[in-house]
């Protein structure tokens, strides 16, 4: 049986629309974090259960020194709901990456929710920078069988 969905809300953020070495931002070392983008999704009412919020982020990253292990996290209302780790190589190899990942947040309570995507470098003596583009989007849907 095919599941039907109804769109509850959609939000997008694109703080950087292109690759630009001139505006590179260093990814902070853990436990510090570099905030990349924020969106707000509204779930209208309890009658919107069951639901899911589909989140997609793409981040342009450049390796500068060593092989940085960059931890990307997604937070809902300040609470981590998803993370993924990506190795970013530097000189002598590939240096520029577009890291894309998707997360699904299920059965979100009604109300307005802030989703934030961050990055942090977990490897000492390495450096990686955000060079763009950055995009972050969320689609909230009501699901039913």
CATH architecture: Sandwich
Distance between the termini: 7 Å
How would a textbook summarize the main sheet?
5 strands, antiparallel
CATH domain topology: Jelly Rolls
Average residue pLDDT: 94
Organism: Paenibacillus agilis
Protein name: Exosporium protein C
What does this structure look like?
- This is Exosporium protein C.
- By secondary structure, the protein is mainly beta.
- It has a single domain, classed as Jelly Rolls, CATH 2.60.120.
- It is 0% helix and 68% strand.
- It is built from no helices and 9 strands.
- The strands form 2 sheets. Strands 1, 2, 4, 7 and 9 form a 5-stranded antiparallel β-sheet that branches.
- A hairpin with a 2-residue loop joins strand 5 and strand 6.
- The radius of gyration is 17 Å and the shape is elongated.
Index terms:
145 residues; Exosporium protein C; 4-stranded antiparallel beta sheet; mainly beta; 5-stranded antiparallel beta sheet; elongated
Secondary structure topology:
Elements: E1 4-16, E2 25-26, E3 34-43, E4 51-65, E5 68-76, E6 79-88, E7 96-106, E8 111-121, E9 127-144
Antiparallel strand pairs: 1-9, 2-9, 3-8, 4-7, 4-9, 5-6, 5-8
């Amino acid at each position: 049986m095919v599941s039907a969905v109804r769109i509850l809300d959609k939000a997008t953020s694109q703080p950087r629309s292109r690759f630009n070495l001139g505006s590179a931002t260093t990814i902070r070392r853990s436990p510090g974090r570099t905030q990349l983008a924020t969106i707000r999704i509204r779930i209208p009412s309890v009658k919107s259960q069951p639901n899911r919020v589909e989140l997609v982020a793409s981040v342009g990253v450049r390796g500068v020194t060593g092989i940085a292990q960059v931890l990307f996290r997604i937070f809902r209302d300040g609470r981590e709901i998803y993370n993924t780790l990506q190795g970013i190589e530097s000189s002598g190899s590939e240096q520029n990456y577009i890291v894309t990942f998707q997360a699904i947040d299920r059965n979100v309570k009604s109300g307005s929710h802030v989703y934030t995507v961050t990055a942090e470098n977990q490897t000492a003596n390495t450096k990686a920078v955000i060079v763009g583009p950055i995009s972050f989007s969320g689609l909230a849907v009501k699901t039913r069988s």
